[in-house]
Design goal:
The complex is a heterodimer of chains A (338) and B (352). Chain A is of the alpha/beta class and 338 residues long. Chain A is 34% helix and 23% strand. The two termini of chain B are 33 Å apart. The chains are: A alpha/beta (338), B alpha/beta (352). Chains A and B meet through α6, α7, α8, α9 and α10 of A and α6, α7, α8, α9 and α10 of B.
Chain lengths: 338, 352
């Protein structure tokens, strides 16, 4: 891997609440280089959004207990002051959110919202900022961008709004774009357009991209590296062929088996959902957090937390099963369908 | 889960094909008015514009399409929640388009609906017991003192703990709430259940649990489903036949596998090519039909074939002037297109 753009070391984000300490993120480490796309997969409450909101500096002390390091271009974001962070946000890291309906301000024209972001960070005149905003709208594929810039968000369709959000996020040419469920609220055809757009812009801007999603299909088509999160931890990480053709963690197997696939030839085959529900992040099960739902658990699993150990290259998984068992189970029980 | 798990029989191609629902020429226009005191009608939203459809007993008919294509409106017209502007709806051979009052209420026992949003479709101030028991109280199919045991039986059936009878919706997770919605829809032992995006709001592992539950219940109670979703993979998995809607019309209908292998309508092809496949090699091997722009406004739908402004295969002036009818292709497949796609145009998978 090339020189990492961002390196996260043993990040923990815990929220103190009246009911107890919510361990939303519990010791994750990863790195990402420029030009790469990282897919982060997991169910609601697995800590995937919280990790990256922390990277963005949108979750800070004292609202949460944050430990670990987020090294971005050699600087630790967690030791920066709010003022310093403000210059990082937008110029170096920016984020697009799931819901394009609520992330634009309904009272302001779309063009003004984008030029405001530009003017906060750059010394440019209103006129120049507007020209840049229109140019960005054009680059994200909005037809007649100069007219569109003077419209309000309600005049945009869902896909158009998400494009406008991407235009805003990229207007300062950041090094890292974090997309938190960017297409969950959109139709598949629009989803395909938006994901292609992100791919294309990644090349154009030579940025690193993080796509947070619960859709294993989205990551299969658009991500180089994938990490699977469960209960605030990374349970498996690897490149996409590792995850789809050689997955090692029972939770990843569960995810792969529970999605109906368009390429299934036998539709009457039953899905195998993962039993039970994700655990409470206050009372995380001892040992491996997945053990209460895991069909392959054995005596060690509720005693020791399995470390995230590399198997080959950068394919790593946090599971006590032996590598031979993992490979056998994956071959015999997981890929039987294709 | 307490429901017995049975193998599903093969697709119901042989059994007697009696349509449970037969709709003919259904149109639903929503007027657009201008003015406050004197309202002038200045146009219509053509939400559903001429749909013929049969849903056979015991089958699952899937309905897919993008936002705004009219799939939910069609479902609500079938449920008689909206009155159709034109066309007829037959339920078990009887015309129910114009039923009113008591007759309509009685018919509704046979048709129930499961909604998309498990958070908005349950009254937060009522207990689960009250919510699931409401159909019994309204239709008086069960004497008052029997309501509670009946409700608890339903709860057990859908995999909820009957001891949670007195809990409120906020105490349940999304998947459990959807189970509550399923239990409520089953209370009157309906013949048809319309599922309007029942799993779109759920996490993948929970989604699979609900889909399996729906399959089990179909077996156990001989249910017929009209299953609406925008996720082609989910629809294909649950459905015997899939109908694709675009701007108020059905553009193609076929068995899921036929649709997947040999889509005929370019719109079906585009939908199919946009579905992300959780298999990197297969994903990169598929052909892409990228649609430009958004669905046109249903207020003033395009002339001729409604898909022509976005269609990669459109030939002019034919497609702009002549609205294609549904034509038969492979067995059980119909599509409305002048220049249909070739076989295996999107995904070149070998026959099983």
């Amino acid at each position: 891997m090339a020189e990492p753009l961002i390196e996260v070391n043993d990040l923990r984000v815990h929220f103190p609440t009246d009911d107890g300490l919510v361990k939303a993120v519990d010791g994750i480490s990863f790195s990402l280089a420029a030009g790469e796309t990282l897919g982060v997969v997991g169910e609601s409450g697995s800590g995937k959004s919280v990790s990256f909101l922390t990277v963005m500096g949108l979750i800070t002390r004292p609202q949460a207990n944050i430990e670990g390091e987020i090294i971005f271009k050699g600087q630790d974001l967690l030791t920066m002051s709010q003022d310093e962070l403000r210059s990082v946000r937008g110029e170096m890291v920016s984020m697009i959110f799931q819901d394009p309906m609520t992330s634009l301000h309904p009272f302001y024209k779309v063009g003004d919202q984008i030029s405001e972001a530009i003017r906060v960070h750059q010394r440019v005149s209103k006129q120049e900022a507007r020209e840049q905003a229109v140019e960005m709208l054009r680059r994200v594929g909005i037809p007649r961008p100069d007219e569109r810039a003077d419209q309000y968000p309600h005049e945009f369709s869902g896909g158009m709004r998400q494009r406008a959000m991407i235009a805003m996020a990229l207007s300062l040419n950041p090094d890292l774009l974090i997309a938190d469920e960017p297409t969950t609220a959109l139709d598949v055809t629009v989803q395909a357009q938006i994901l292609d757009l992100i791919d294309r812009l990644k090349e154009e801007f030579n940025a690193a991209v993080v796509i947070i999603t619960h859709d294993l299909g989205v990551v299969a088509e658009h991500c180089d590296h994938i990490q699977v999160m469960y209960a605030g931890r990374i349970v498996e990480s690897g490149d996409r062929n590792d995850i789809y053709y050689k997955a090692h963690h029972p939770y990843t197997w569960g995810l792969l088996r529970s999605i109906p696939r368009i390429d299934d030839t036998d539709d009457k085959e039953r899905l195998s959902p993962i039993k039970g529900l994700p655990p409470s992040l206050i009372f995380v099960p001892p040992g491996c957090p997945f053990h209460p739902r895991c069909p392959y658990r054995f005596n060690k699993c509720d005693q020791e937390v399995p470390p995230l150990l590399p198997a080959d290259g950068h394919h790593a998984s946090a599971c006590h099963l032996s590598l031979a068992d993992k490979e056998r189970i994956f071959k015999e029980e997981v890929i039987v369908r294709s | 889960m307490s429901v017995q798990v049975n193998e599903r029989p093969n697709a119901p191609s042989t059994p007697e094909r009696t349509p449970l629902i037969r709709i003919r020429g259904i149109r639903k226009l929503f007027p657009i008015t201008r003015g406050i005191l004197i309202q002038k009608r200045i146009g219509d939203v053509h939400a559903v514009d001429g749909v013929d459809l049969e849903v056979y007993k015991g089958e699952t008919l899937g309905l897919v399409g993008e936002t705004g294509c009219g799939k939910s409106t069609l479902a609500r017209v079938i449920m008689r929640l909206y009155d159709a502007t034109a066309g007829t709806i037959e339920f078990e051979g009887r015309d129910v388009t114009k039923l009113r009052g008591r007759e309509l209420r009685e018919m509704r026992r046979d048709m129930q609906m499961i909604f998309q949003d498990p958070f908005a479709s349950l009254n937060p101030r009522k207990t689960i017991g009250t919510i699931i028991g409401t159909p019994f109280r309204l239709h008086k199919t069960v004497p008052k003192n029997r309501v509670k045991p009946e409700v608890q039986q339903l709860m057990e059936l859908v995999g909820l703990n009957p001891e949670h009878y007195n809990r409120y919706p906020h105490e349940f997770s999304g998947g459990q709430r959807q189970r509550i919605g399923v239990a409520r829809s089953l209370a009157l032992r309906p013949k048809l259940i319309v599922c309007d995006e029942p799993v779109s709001a759920l996490d993948v592992s929970i989604q699979a649990q609900i889909l399996n539950l729906l399959e089990d219940l179909q077996q156990e109670f001989d249910l017929t489903y009209l299953f609406i979703a925008h996720d082609l993979a989910v629809v294909k998995h649950v459905s015997d036949r899939v109908a694709v809607m675009y701007l108020g019309k059905i553009v193609e209908m076929a068995a899921g596998n036929t649709l997947y292998r040999n889509p005929k309508h370019p719109y079906t092809g585009a939908l199919l090519s946009a579905v992300p496949i959780a298999d990197p090699d297969l994903a990169s091997a598929k052909k892409r039909i990228i649609l430009e722009g958004d669905v046109p406004s249903p207020i003033d739908p395009p002339s001729g074939c409604r898909f022509h402004p976005r269609c990669p295969n459109a030939q002019f002036p034919k497609c702009k002037e002549d609205d294609p009818d549904l034509m038969p292709f492979h067995e059980g497949q119909v599509a409305a297109c002048h220049f249909p796609l070739e076989d295996r145009a999107i995904i070149a998978t070998p026959d099983p």
